[in-house]
From TrEMBL:
It comes from Dichomitus squalens. Catalyzes the interconversion between the alpha and beta anomers from at least three hexose 6-phosphate sugars (Glc6P, Gal6P, and Man6P). One of its GO terms (biological process) is carbohydrate metabolic process. This is Glucose-6-phosphate 1-epimerase. One of its GO terms (molecular function) is carbohydrate binding. The active site is at residues 163, 269. It comes from the Eukaryota. It catalyses: alpha-D-glucose 6-phosphate = beta-D-glucose 6-phosphate. The keyword Isomerase applies. GO terms for cellular component: cytoplasm. CDD domains: D-hex-6-P-epi_like (cd09020).
């Protein structure tokens, strides 16, 4: 059964063995298992903390949380009542349809409409659709944002990001190409320092120390490589990318982070998070990423 609809999640199964699981809460991909090009045995490609809540009590610590309409602590007046990273990752989405189911792959669409809780925090009428597609060596996620306001209303402004927890040894993993990009270092102690752009001097960036970097106007394609593995991310319409790993000191303070969890992942998060997407009433914005197994 390529698509299995359960009460709290949708399970995708590819005819050649790969699989993916999407929690309806947050439309959070909590598992992606895919074989490498040298072995047929599917392995887990994402990190989910053993302490992660999967019962809808809080956003999932791991997998691919969907960040919308704000990244980080809200700064836009429209978002002032929202929690960190917005409402997409902490609301229950609806399975809408299976849009592909053949030898090439399996794809489903989930949707989110304003509910009472969201409407208390966010005034704009919207429709979100999230399409997750599992191919033999790839997983893609597309976020479609429709501004459902009347044509006479001003455009909405939002941010969006895929908060990927890529399973990899943090002691060895590198992400490239980032050389020469401007980035904002959120590990700096003062707001002034965090707001001061730096220039990346490394082609490949490690996360050997606490790293929380927001790269602006990035290339849109990233290689995440380590000794025995690699994932490539190819994006459309996502101009920025965030690289995050808290390492031990900051990681140990994260309540739902398993002991030593920070050693098992790198977050490489494509998005539109510097500035805002401006979307006219009646228009739709689409941001896409494709995660490809390189090794
Ligand atoms: O994307 C990096 C980041 O913004 C970090 O600053 C850290 O806060 C991380 O997201 C996790 O955020 P969360 O709200 O899931 O604890």
């Amino acid at each position: 059964m390529p698509v299995e609809i359960r009460t709290d999640r949708v399970v995708l199964k590819h005819p050649k063995g790969p699989s993916a699981e999407i929690l309806l809460y947050g439309a959070t991909v909590i598992s992606w298992k895919s074989a490498s090009h040298t072995s047929n045995e599917p392995v887990e490609r994402l990190f989910v903390s053993a302490k992660a809540a999967l019962d809808g009590s809080k956003p999932v610590r791991g997998g691919i949380p969907v960040v919308f309409p704000c990244f980080g602590a809200p700064t836009h007046p429209d978002h002032s009542k929202l929690p960190q990273h917005g409402f997409a990752r902490n609301n229950v989405w609806t399975y809408a349809a299976t849009v592909l189911d053949n030898e090439a792959g399996v794809s489903v669409r989930l949707t989110l409409e304003p509910n009472a809780t969201i409407q208390e925090q966010y005034a704009h009428p919207f429709h979100l659709a999230y399409v997750v597609t599992l191919a033999e060596h790839e997983l893609s996620t597309d976020l479609h944002v429709k501004n459902n306001a009347l044509s006479t209303t001003p455009p909405i402004e939002f941010q969006a990001l895929f908060h990927n927890y890529i399973r990899a040894p943090s002691s060895d993993v590198r992400v490239s190409p980032l050389l020469g990009l401007s980035y904002y270092d959120k590990t700096e102690a003062t707001e002034e320092a965090r707001a001061t752009p730096k220039k990346e001097v490394r082609q490949a960036v490690d996360v050997l120390r606490f790293t929380d970097s927001v790269y602006e106007d990035a290339p849109g394609r990233y290689d995440i490589l380590w000794g025995s593995g690699g994932i490539e991310i190819v994006t459309k319409n996502l101009k920025d990318v965030v690289v995050w790993n808290p390492q031990a000191e900051a990681g140990a303070k994260i309540g739902d982070m398993e002991e030593g969890g920070w050693e098992k992942y790198i977050c490489v998060e494509p998005g539109h998070v510097r500035g805002y997407v401006k979307l006219e009433a009646g228009q739709t914005w689409i941001g896409q990423q494709v995660l490809k197994v390189k090794v």
